[in-house]
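Quick one, tokens below. Sequence please?
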């Protein structure tokens, strides 16, 4: 699959610079080492959660969902949403409601973020037979889904306010950033010629980074 796609065909496992067996052994060693390191330096809960996310990403998303369903990004996004929960568990040994709201924020952010990129890479995915949403349902439907998930994301971000006792700084950031994200997603849906998908993709990266910075600033104040 990587050899077919333009963006991945120079990866060292494709070119032969790194034999697949060596890559597999290295990956297993990293996963096992990370589990031991987290357990030794933080908490067992953090180590177990991080390992669960790794196994979910490898077996559920990469080996199963990515090759079979256009919902791969939606369901598989759970793996990428685990870090806030892992971080909370590493510090406290627990995973309270606020940590899971942060999980939900990343979970609902992932589809519009990645589908915007997949609109740009539709040809690559089609050649490789990867059932990404633009390939299976078309660009127009994908743009509509980007807007839908963006609109669902905004109220989820506001839930963190009561769950983590956030204040004005966070609420202002969540509202302002959410409005900007929704406006870009709406333009991508209604006026695709004037809103390149990569612009939405790049903004989504900035959006999530600034949102989490606002969490830290608000908590510090």
């Amino acid at each position: 699959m990587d050899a077919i796609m333009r963006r991945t065909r120079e990866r060292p496992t494709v070119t032969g610079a790194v034999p697949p067996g060596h890559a597999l052994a290295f990956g297993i060693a990293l996963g096992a080492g990370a589990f031991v390191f987290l357990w030794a330096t933080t908490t067992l809960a953090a180590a177990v959660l991080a390992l669960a996310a790794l196994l979910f990403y490898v077996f559920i998303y990469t080996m199963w969902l990515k090759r079979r369903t256009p919902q791969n990004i939606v369901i598989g996004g759970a793996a990428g949403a685990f870090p806030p929960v892992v971080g909370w568990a590493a510090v406290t040994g627990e995973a309270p409601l606020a940590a899971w709201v942060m999980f939900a924020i990343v979970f609902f952010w992932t589809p519009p973020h990645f589908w915007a990129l997949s609109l740009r890479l539709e040809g690559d995915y089609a050649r490789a037979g990867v059932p990404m949403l633009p390939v299976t349902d078309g660009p127009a439907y994908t743009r509509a889904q980007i807007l839908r998930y963006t609109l669902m994301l905004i109220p989820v971000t506001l839930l963190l306010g009561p769950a983590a006792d956030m204040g004005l700084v966070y609420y202002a950031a969540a509202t302002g950033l959410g409005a900007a994200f929704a406006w870009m997603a709406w333009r991508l849906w209604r006026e695709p010629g004037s809103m390149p998908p990569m612009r939405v993709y790049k903004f989504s990266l900035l959006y999530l980074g600034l949102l989490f910075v606002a969490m830290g600033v608000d908590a510090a104040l």
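The chain has a mean pLDDT of 95. The radius of gyration is 19 Å.
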